[in-house]
User: Fold this.
Amino acid sequence: MYIEQFVFFILALITLLSGWFVVTDRNLFHAALAMMLTFLGVAGLYVLLDSGFLAATQLLVYIGAISILIIFAIMMTRRLMKTTEPAYNSMWQGALLISVFSGAGLVYVIVQVFGMSNYLQKPDTSDAVLNGTVVTLGEWLVSADHLVIPFEVASVLLLAALIGSIVIARAEK
Amino acid sequence: MDILELLKATVQFRVFDYLRELYGPNLYMEAAFDLVGILTVSTFCLLIVLFLILWERWVIARIQDRIGPNRVGKWGMLQTVADVGKLLTKEVIIPRGADKPAYIVAPLLIVMASLVVWAVLPFAPGVIGTDLNIGVFYFLAVSSASVVCLLLAGWGSNNKYALLGAFRAVAQLVSYEVPMVISLVVPILLARSMSTQSIVEAQVYPFFAVVPLSAIIFFISALAETGRTPFDLLEAESEIVAGFHVEYTGMLFGMFFLAEFISTLFMSGLFATVYLGGWNLPLINLLLSFTEIGPIEFANPDALFGLGRPLALLVFFAKMFGTYFVFIWIRGTLPRVRVDQMLDLNWKFLVPLSLVVLLVVAILDKILFSTGLATGPTGDLIRTLAHLVSNIVIFMGTMEIVRRYARRRRAENASVPVGVSAAVEQEDMKSWQPAGTD
Assistant:
């Protein structure tokens, strides 16, 4: 067994357990913290795949920005210290069904595309390949043949959301 | 294994390379190297804080015309050792109703977060934790994630003042991250790499001379990110009990301080690396290359009696501690800003300015390279001068805008008698406050 596999199982365990915790914990603050741990586990998986840029992005966006935002939102809207709400509402069966189906779908697609055989083989992680990924990503994001239109559309969408939030939050004069 | 050779390799900072050559590639040995490296760097960081606190107190005492610590040991040199002893022996009190895991984990995490970023700081050629190809970005990611620790501490304390303090701290850190990120993109763009080691090597002219505006914006946001004067209003050490760590006692409290000093030193190191040429001597090397001596090659194992790495480390330390001295100097000189001034400075001044600098540098660099001006023997000089001139023009334009704004405000307030200006400031504060608070 490779050391990578061992690390993978630990990371997967962290991700799944903390994910379970997010859903079941009734203390919303603890749930948010557990969600950060989930994101951290996923970042660890990216590192394991030698994809440091994605891992750092995950850390920056999901833990540094989104989780903080969620914690702020929780703290400003809920009575944190008195958690009396039930952990589930009436839609949990539907949610479970959808999760199981999408999980099964992912597994099916992965097995179809990669087959069952070569999971023990380590992918090409030579320096040339890895150093190239960030450069390639950067070039693709601004090249007309690749991703420039989705990139620009996403930027415009974010800008619109930004301006919209300012307009909503602005005091009426 | 020859003991003398081993000692020589140690002095030259080549002991890992030496052992690698001797025993060939070995996974366990590499793991041991990593462990030794981590231990060395973190021990250095933790111990240097003893000196940093003392140094800061000495310098500030000198600035304020006081004597400063001089009782414990020669010149008061053991003062911080005694302080740490005191902190360690104090009782750690956990407030009633505190969220115990969050309360205890927060200081540990914040020290860890301030230590892990040192992995990408190049101390000397080849002396670096890991030369990640995303080095600078890694630092930004970790430092943005470490904001969580403050929330943990504030919330875990079960104290509304601690929680408010944490909110204020997070608001400040998150705001000042924006100009910091944007200003750090400029040297990345100039060096065409995010790896700290490549940024050092790319500096034929130190980036401080190429893009001084970006360097100054980074420095100001580094001041704010580390919560130091003039942006220390989250804590205001000299006046009130601290913000988010109001409930902490003993060494748990000491850890917040530890983390603050370590990250301030790291910021100085990063500034030295990104803007001052790190372990290299960019300008001096350039001048020397015109003489017979030739540039100083720290990276060459045969030059400088094989002592290139230790000497480079000294150069880097001189720059890092020099920058740190400026941090202390500012602390002893500038008054604290108000919260609305702090946020105005960030959102209305630093962020737009850094965006303009980034755009201008990107476009200018593209033009310089596509017209072929920046290639050839004088390319670096032309590139540096072009960026420098553009930076100066941007700076003067900004100053002109700010001056006009100030003049307009002064004209508006000219009819107001002097004694009323405090009331006007109060009005300012009100207009800043978010809707619905009053």
Notes: Chain A touches chain B at residues 29-30, 33, 36, 52-53, 55-57, 59-60, 63-65, 67-68, 71-72, 75, 80-81, 130-131, 134, 169-172 (CB under 8 Å). The mean pLDDT of chain A is 83. The CA atoms of residues 36 and 67 of chain A lie 7 Å apart.
